[in-house]
Amino acid sequence: MAALRKALITGGASGLGLAVAKSLLETGEWTVSLLDMNEERGTEVASTLGSSADFKQVDVTDYTSLSAAFQSIYEQQQRLDFVFANAGVVSAQDFYAESSLDGAPAEPSYKTLDIDLRAVINTSVLGRNYLGRPDNKAQQKNLIITASCGGFYAVANDPLYAAAKHGTIGFVRSVARQYWSRDKIRVNAICPGLMRTNILPDAVFTMFPEDSLTPVEKVVEVVKMLLVSEKYVGQTVEVFGKQHWFRKQIEYCEPGMAAMMGVTEEL
Q1: What is the tally of structural domains in the chain?
Q2: What kind and span of H or E run contains 112?
Q3: Which positions ≥6 away from 222 have C-beta within 8 Å?
Q4: Residues 6, 75 contacting (CB under 8 angstroms)
Q5: Residue in 169, 163, 168 with CA at minimum distance from that of residue 108
Q6: Which sign, positive or negative, has the C-alpha torsion 35, 121, 186, 227?
Q7: pTM for the whole thing?
Q8: Contact (Cβ atoms closer than 8 angstroms) between residue 189 and residue 168
Q9: Tell me, what DSSP letter sits at residue 206?
């Protein structure tokens, strides 16, 4: 019997992370570690998934906490096949709040950037370390990152979310070739439209036409497509409704720009 593969999923106690975990476990070929801040929910969810799943309470913005979780999880099976950098939030503050007459306005909260971009980068750094270890038993090594359609388009009500997701897409496109050429790690990003998950209050979803929402099941399908096929490296896949598109970066303005940017691959 083949050894079970190992997945580590941030934001794994609910929403898309949990849906991907369930889908992997249903194959009988995986063990899954769920990382999340919500200890009560995470413990409860893991207990319902059986012995092939476990939970670790982790603050993804705390590098020490995240690093310790990676180390512990890797040691379980001396392998790591798939890192799903999925934890994310939307901004809780009104970015356009009225200015104060008394001096400078308060500094904006950067929690969204910390979770949606900085923690994604940290998860990727740790993922590369463990996926690329010479003693890792994994045959295929995958890092999939949850970006957003908000990484391609303006998000007027939440510009910090848009900034984080644009940054995530730029990061994926920048590291994918290097991770592959140096460590044979395939890096790809999913960029879903609005899904009905707990990232927003239920009342918010009533503001959108039902056919403008993206089923979680479709996004899970795309994650598994990227996970299974060896031909996908550096893809940013937009998912809306029941369809998906492979989105390329914008064209270079002229050959000189292409040559200049190409040099960055060699430095």
Answers
A1: 1
A2: helix 111-113
A3: 190, 237, 239, 244
A4: no
A5: 163
A6: positive
A7: 0.95
A8: yes
A9: T
- Structure token digits, residue 173: 């496109």
The question of whether 161 is a catalytic residue gets the answer: yes
List the beta strands (DSSP E) in the chain: 5-10, 30-36, 53-57, 82-85, 141-146, 185-192, 236-240, 243-247
Q: Which domain holds residue 20?
A: 5-263
Query: Is 130 labeled as catalytic in the residue annotation?
Result: no
Please give the structure tokens belonging to residue 40: 């009560």
CATH number, domain containing residue 48: 3.40.50.720
Output the six-digit token pair for 199: 């990232």
Rounded distance between C-alpha atoms, residue 156 and residue 210, angstroms: 21
Residue 252 token pair: 């270079």
Catalytic residue among 6, 56, 141, 165: 165
Give the tokens for residue 127. Answer: 């993922």
Question: Which one of 130, 161, 179, 232 is the catalytic residue?
Answer: 161
pLDDT in tens, the chain (267 residues): 579 999 999 999 999 999 999 999 999 999 999 999 999 999 999 999 999 999 999 999 999 999 999 999 999 999 999 999 999 999 888 899 877 777 788 889 999 999 999 999 999 999 999 999 999 999 999 999 999 999 999 999 999 999 999 999 999 999 999 999 999 999 999 999 998 887 777 777 777 878 888 999 999 999 999 999 999 999 999 999 999 999 999 999 999 999 999 999 887
CA gap 13, 235 in Å, rounded: 26
Q: Rounded to an integer, what distance in angstroms lies between the CA atom of residue 70 and that of residue 63? A: 10
What number of other Cβ atoms are within 10 A of residue 21's Cβ? 26
